[in-house]
């Protein structure tokens, strides 16, 4: 029995296969939670190939962009960029998603970040605010200024105008 295990380890890479398995499980667990954060069913993030279609649909609005995953390194870079934007993360987290997705995708799935929509279009914060780790406030006393501006505005009645268009079909 021991020789069979030794032969198995010789052909499969031994302990690395367990690390690879754990990395895939962590990645899929992160995809599951990301789908739930985006308001879709979590199981959609676990089915192979379909999960990348669904993740790209969530982060870019176009699921067919998952075809970029078939080009080496391009899929990870594009996915990391748009995933960070969709969840309001900064550039450091974006680089982590690009090059270490099996660590940063579960972090994104299980942290308290918020989903802002495809490509982060719903994120009201600026790029600087996304990258900031601390926020400081300054309290100042607001006093009225001595300078006042006075504008004279004349009221006028709206003027009604009509526009006629002649549309002719070009032959």
Summarize the structure in short.
By secondary structure, the chain is mainly α.
Describe this structure in words.
The protein is mostly helical. Helices cover 47% and strands 0% of the residues. The protein has helices at residues 2-12, 16-37, 50-60, 74-86, 91-99, 101-110, 127-131. α2 packs parallel to α6 (101-110) and α3 crosses α4 (74-86). It is flat, with a radius of gyration of 27 Å. The chain starts with a helix and ends in a 40-residue tail after the last helix.
Helix content: 40-55%
Tell me the structural class: mainly alpha
- Envelope shape: flat
Number of strands: 0
Can you tell me the residue ranges where pLDDT is under 50 for at least 5 consecutive residues? 1-8
- Summarize model confidence as the mean pLDDT: 79
Terminal CA distance reads 86 Å
Estimated radius of gyration: 27 Å
Work out the helix count.
Answer: 7
Strand count, sense and barrel status of the largest sheet are: none
What order do the helices and strands follow? HHHHHHH
Strand content: under 5%
Q: What key attributes describe this structure?
A:
single chain; 171 residues; mainly alpha; 47% helix; 0% strand; flat; disordered N terminus
């Amino acid at each position: 029995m021991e020789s069979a295990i030794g032969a198995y380890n010789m052909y499969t890479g031994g302990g690395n296969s367990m690390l690879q398995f754990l990395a895939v499980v962590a990645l899929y667990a992160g995809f599951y939670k990301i789908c739930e954060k985006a308001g879709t069913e979590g199981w959609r993030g676990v089915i192979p190939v379909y999960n990348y279609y669904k993740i790209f649909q969530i982060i870019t609005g176009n699921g067919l962009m998952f075809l970029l995953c078939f080009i080496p390194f391009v899929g990870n870079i594009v996915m990391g960029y748009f995933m960070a934007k969709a969840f309001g993360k900064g550039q450091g987290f974006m680089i982590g998603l690009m090059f270490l997705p099996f660590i940063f995708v579960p972090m994104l799935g299980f942290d308290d970040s918020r989903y802002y929509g495809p490509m982060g279009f719903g994120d009201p914060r600026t790029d600087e605010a996304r990258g900031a780790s601390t926020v400081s406030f300054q309290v100042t006393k607001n006093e009225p200024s001595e300078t006042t501006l006075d504008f004279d505005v004349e009221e006028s009645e709206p003027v009604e105008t009509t526009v006629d268009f002649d549309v002719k079909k070009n032959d």
